[in-house]
Amino acid sequence: MKRAGLLLSLATTMATAAVAPDRLALLAEQQQVPLAELQAAVARAQLRQEVLDTISKPWEAKPWHRYRPLFVTPDRIRDGQQFWQQHAETLARAEQTYRVPASLIVAIIGVETFYGRQMGRHPVLDTLYTLGFHYPERSDFFAKEFGGAGQRGRVATRCPQGLLCRRHGDGAVHALQLPPLRRRF
Prior knowledge:
This protein is an all-alpha fold.
């Protein structure tokens, strides 16, 4: 038991050490999140090599003729129509409030989650940590998302409806991605 505690303490120290203290302090200040919260979140997070591998080979880089058949299918079209009908009132309010066409919202939800069927393979906290502090190409963006998740009190891995939030390796977060965008616009 003593050994397990020592290993956990060592892992926590290593995870926190992987993030430069001054970078974490600056992020806390920018995102208006207590530094201790971010340090605790970093200590809980795990580096996910699969996330780094996935983001380095995005499907979006493939030609449209290879990408399209994955997303424009009879099942997605049918499910999209059902989703739109089921959520018509909410979509109409969103369209009025944010001036984003309901068709675009429905399409994005279909591509990103297959209308809730695919919520990703990796916990949000781990993915934001991995991309925010171990993926230099987009680390600024994902570090802010990591800090913003703490600001919204959503560093936990549960969505408001009690669903497990996941982030795809390509960076798309399901159930978490839209609130920070609303805050910025």
